[in-house]
């Protein structure tokens, strides 16, 4: 039985019910604007991309249109690449790194690959600077049939029409100090489990797919990002977030089993980036630049392997 209180909501050892979730929701406040930060940036790219609204979320009287940027000169004979950001809304450089890539770098790949950029999968979470959606559900554990997260279900529907054509998918994330101070304790409380403290990696790392590891692909990304920001070393136990690295800066997870966004396609080349924005050695600009460097390296490697 769990008796120690480590989170202000709920009873230790008892999963949250509707009352606890309502209490949690009442504590969430809008702290930034999806319209100002993301939608306007997407609108500014309409002269270069086909902007596709692939869904709309409705939460307690608020509406959030979901947008994807697609290559304007879409060529059926070319492979496709998917770039996703903001699956966890609070992970800022995932959103702004995806937008920066679309604005400044996507043109370099015209005629080589069809691009689909989804910069903000979870707009409610973006505005609240939160990991979950308004129902206290983590979208990045919800890429499963009959998904409990509207964010995940909408992206799965978008991607379904492209299955078999996507060559590479890179999902842009961050690991922050608040993972340990806020979100992991909340997760344990929500699920009625004990909170087991961990450590936050000091630097950038990648999460590949243990079911189809691509060590050369992951190394190419790490090498590119190392020119922009530092790569996370293992902790004192030789691990990164509890996993033994497959190579420097890379761990592997069973992505589909865990319902992670990087499993949403059948692409042979997939990875999740993890930027560390709370490092005194990294600026917000470096974090965005690291995401862009990762996207470029992922595309360059995959296209070279395919002779494209």
From TrEMBL:
One of its GO terms (molecular function) is zinc ion binding. It comes from the Bacteria. Keywords: Hydrolase, Metal-binding, Zinc. GO terms for biological process: proteolysis. Residues 30-308 form the Peptidase M14 domain. Gene3D superfamilies: Zn peptidases. Coiled coil: none annotated. PROSITE patterns: PEPTIDASE_M14. Its cofactor is Zn(2+). Belongs to the peptidase M14 family. This is Peptidase. It comes from Lysobacter defluvii IMMIB APB-9 = DSM 18482.
């Amino acid at each position: 039985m769990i008796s120690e209180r480590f989170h202000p909501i709920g009873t230790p050892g008892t999963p949250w019910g509707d009352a606890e979730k309502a209490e949690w929701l009442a504590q969430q406040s809008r702290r930034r604007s999806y319209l100002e930060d993301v939608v306007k940036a997407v609108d500014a790219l309409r002269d270069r991309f086909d902007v596709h609204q692939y869904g709309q979320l409705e939460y307690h009287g608020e509406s959030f249109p979901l947008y994807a940027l697609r290559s304007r000169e879409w060529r059926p004979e070319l492979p496709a690449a998917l770039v996703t950001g903001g699956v966890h809304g609070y992970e800022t450089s995932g959103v702004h790194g995806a937008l920066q890539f679309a604005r400044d770098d996507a043109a370099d790949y015209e005629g080589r690959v069809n691009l689909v950029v989804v910069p903000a999968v979870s707009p409610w979470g973006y505005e609240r600077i939160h990991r979950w959606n308004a129902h206290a559900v983590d979208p990045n554990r919800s890429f499963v049939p009959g998904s409990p997260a509207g964010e995940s279900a909408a992206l799965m529907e978008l991607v379904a029409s492209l299955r078999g054509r996507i060559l590479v998918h890179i999902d842009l994330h961050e690991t922050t100090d608040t993972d340990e101070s806020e979100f992991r304790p909340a997760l344990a409380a929500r699920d009625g489990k004990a909170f087991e403290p961990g450590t936050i990696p000091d630097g950038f790392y990648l999460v590949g797919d243990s079911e189809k590891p691509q060590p050369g692909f992951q190394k190419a990304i790490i090498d590119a990002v190392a020119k922009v920001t530092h790569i996370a070393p293992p902790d004192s136990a030789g691990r990164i977030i509890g996993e033994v690295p497959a190579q420097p800066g890379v761990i592997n997870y069973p992505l589909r089993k865990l319902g992670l966004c990087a499993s949403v396609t059948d692409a042979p080349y997939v990875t999740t980036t993890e930027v560390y924005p709370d490092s005194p050695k990294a600026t917000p600009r470096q974090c965005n630049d690291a995401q862009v460097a990762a996207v470029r390296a992922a595309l360059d490697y995959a296209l070279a392997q395919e002779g494209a």
